[in-house]
Amino acid sequence: MTTFVLSMFNANFVSSAGEPVVLGLALAYGGLAQFVAGMWEFRTGNTFGAVAFTSFGAFWISFALLILFFVKTVPAGDAGHAVGLYLWAWAIFTTYMAVAALRTTGAILTVFVLLAVTFILLAIGNSGGHETVIHWGGYLGLVTAAAAWYASFAAVINSTFGRVIAPVVPLKR
Q1: Euclidean distance between CA atoms 2 and 71, whole angstroms
Q2: What is the pLDDT of residues 93-113, one digit of tens each?
Q3: At a CB cut-off of 8 Å and minimum separation 6, what does 148 contact?
Q4: Inter-residue contact 134 to 121 (CB < 8 Å)
Q5: How far, in Å, CA of 89 to CA of 172, rounded?
Q6: Consecutive 10-residue runs of the chain (173 residues): their mean pLDDT?
Q7: What is the distance between the terminal CA atoms of the chain, rounded to a whole angstrom?
Q8: Taking Cα atoms as reference points, which of 70, 56, 79 lies closest to residue 125?
Q9: Which is it for the CA torsion 61, 20, 25, 53, positive or negative?
């Protein structure tokens, strides 16, 4: 949901005047809820889920804090490069998580590959001040959000019904 809302702004589908709405989602749903879910995954012994949820929860919290408190203290000429560096770091993390996702499901792998490319586009766009590339990152972010919604829908509905309703394509172990 947080990726969807932020991507609507990055794709320039809605006015940037509404961007603060992302921060509430980033702190509560993308941040705190995912972070807590990651802690629960540690408890169940799911290392992949624990690292993914905890890290992306921390990403969203740090993103909100960056926008609310810190990016305005970076000189205007350096802000794009600084945000770009932040996004490159997340692109690297997401890429190696995509490699680890090769042992999960096709649905999860799709989310991580799309998210890695989204981060790469946003990193390039911010680093070089290329608004068009940021828009591409927004478009791909919307596709990423749809893939993540499908993966979470499939997990919930398959568990609820006790059988495969929405296929996730388990990958060979």
Answers
A1: 20
A2: 999 999 999 999 999 999 999
A3: 3, 111, 115
A4: yes
A5: 29
A6: 98 94 96 98 97 98 96 94 97 98 98 98 96 98 98 98 98 82
A7: 30
A8: 79
A9: negative
Give me the helix-helix angle, 131-161 and 106-128, nearest 10°.
160
The pTM of this model reads 0.96
Residues, the chain, total?
173
Q: What is the DSSP string of 50-68?
A: HHHHHHHHHHHHHHHHIII
Contact criterion met (CB below 8 Å) for 97 and 112: yes
Query: Would you list the DSSP string of 10-74?
Result: HTTSS-GGGTHHHHHHIIIIIIIIHHHHHHHHHHHT-HHHHHHHHHHHHHHHHHHHIIIIIGGGS
Cα angle at 140 between 139 and 141, to 5 degrees?
Answer: 90
Which pLDDT belongs to residue 172?
Answer: 80
Buried/exposed 78-93: b ≥16 CB within 10 Å, e otherwise: eebebbbebbbebbeb
Q: Give the Cα separation of 171 and 33 in Å (integer).
A: 27
Amino acid at residue number 172: K
62 with 42: CB under 8 angstroms? no
